[in-house]
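call fold(seq) -> tokens
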Amino acid sequence: MDAALKSALLDKRPLMWVNPGLCPLDEAGGELQEMGAKVAKTCENWIRMAPLLAACFPGLQPQRGRLRSQLLPVPGLRRLMPQDTGRYYVKSDNDLQVSGSTHIRGAVYEVTLLAMVLGRKLGLMTDEAGPMALTTAEARQAFSAYKVVTASSGNLGLAVGRAAQGLGFRVEVHMPRSARSWIERELRTSGIKVVLHEDGFRKTNEAAMRAAEGDPGSYFVDEKHSRLLFFGASAAAAELQAQLVRQNIQISKDRPLFLYLPCGSGSAPGGVAMGARQMFGPNVHCFFAEPVCTPKALAALSTPRSKPVNVRDMGLRSRTAAAGLSVPELSPLVAGAMESQLSGVFTVEDDIMFRWLAQAQDRAGLQLDPGAAASLAGPEMLMQTDAGRAYLERHGLQDKMRDAVHVMWATGGGCMPDADYERCLTRGRMLQESSQIAAE
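ret:
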């Protein structure tokens, strides 16, 4: 990382960083190409799982067991975006079934595969009976002897908790005390054990891993290293592709696709980005959004990857209202995958997140949490910063922007309790009013 970039990060200045190592997936090396190929296998697994999921999660029955969110045109928000730059959509994972965040994709995928493997081991599932054998009272009783453990500072804990409960497992979620939020209350209300730690996420994750390793009946969902969380999220790209086709939108060199993805530890946005690169090739441009105080993806990808980069070690502290994005270190798995596949990273101040949160509600009727609202800042950061404009020029995109498609990924917020959401909304509206007064 050069000195000027490090200085900007330490000063917590909002910025756009573009990845000089970006290359097409088919030029990225064998390991990444294999990861891309796994996206198709993941989609096949989702189809196989669907009847089981419909039986275990009532909210998935209308979709016949498939996790799906809408691709919403947002004309009210469109007027706030850079003009003459194509179509704008919000991918409403904030309203995803079961837990109201994009993390439910990876959580359900990993926990369901665990159930299927364990079901075979216990003799509950056979080739003849198939996954539906895991819906019986006998299977749920057997699974209740096992515990799923994870560590989370945000939506992943709720997603894993509800996914595991739906299949009959006991659950234990470890959280940093500093990240206590409405999610902790929701977990406890659901009967899920919460273990709070005085240290930050890194040591919390290590403690959760040790707790699982010390119990032979426990399984650890590791947000930092799980390939299943990553690939579970990747299938969202195929869902997006189908939605665009239904709207007669064909992504191509002349109609590029831009994705803006809020990033915590990176498993969900990294999976979506990898899936998108597999589905759309070099015609999709993926950007992560992060708080200015925890630019872990930007720091990791702009530094030679000899060891993980933790922004706390740089002197930054994770003081942000976007609890789910406050993780100080990017997943090593995601760092390796995104090293050549991510277009860039932009950072956002908390006040800007809250302003976009209010705009999303008042202009589009969307309930987002602060972290999800960070995605809405993406188009402006891409097209109105020097780094963003340089990216468009380098990739020959300036004359393609009138036909571009922008998808801002709403990663969470749909399950926020009313009182917590109203506090966020009030803060956002007050900030918005203040900025309007200052401009007059």
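The chain has a mean pLDDT of 93.
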